[in-house]
Specification:
mainly alpha; elongated
Length: 112
C-alpha cells in the first residue's frame, strides 16, 4: 500500500472535497458545521485508537521511524503519541502557570 491511501480514507477525502463544492453557501456552511462537530466529538476516541497502535507496536520493539511510515505521520509525532503528549492544541491550556501556581493571563495584574 506504500503511499496509496486506503480506500476508506480516499472515500472520506472525496466526500469532504465534495462539501467544498456545494453551490449554496449556506448549505455548504451547514455541512461544514456538521462535519466539524462530528470530528470534534470523535477526535479523542480516534487519538486513543491511534495511541493504542503506537504503544502496541513499540512494545513489539518496532522502531519509531517504521511506525511513522506505517501510520502516515512524522517521527516526532509518534514519539509524542507514545509519551501521551499528542493532543489537539485547543485542548491544551492557553496560559502557562505563573508564580505561586496561579495562571498568568499575559497581562498585568491590577493590585488595588
Amino acid at each position: 500500500m506504500a503511499d496509496e491511501l486506503a480506500e476508506e480514507t480516499q472515500k472520506v477525502i472525496d466526500a469532504l472535497e465534495a462539501i467544498e463544492r456545494i453551490a449554496d453557501p449556506v448549505a455548504r456552511a451547514a455541512a461544514i458545521s456538521d462535519v466539524l462537530k462530528y470530528v470534534e466529538k470523535s477526535e479523542p476516541r480516534w487519538r486513543d485508537l491511534r495511541r493504542d497502535v503506537v504503544l502496541n507496536l513499540r512494545s513489539d520493539s518496532v522502531p519509531y521511524r517504521r511506525i511513522a511510515a506505517m501510520i502516515h505521520t512524522s517521527l516526532g509525532t509518534v514519539q509524542s503519541i507514545e509519551r501521551g503528549h499528542a493532543g489537539a492544541w485547543r485542548t491544551k491550556p492557553r496560559t502557562k502557570p505563573g508564580k505561586g501556581g496561579e495562571e498568568s493571563s499575559g497581562g498585568t495584574a491590577n493590585n488595588d
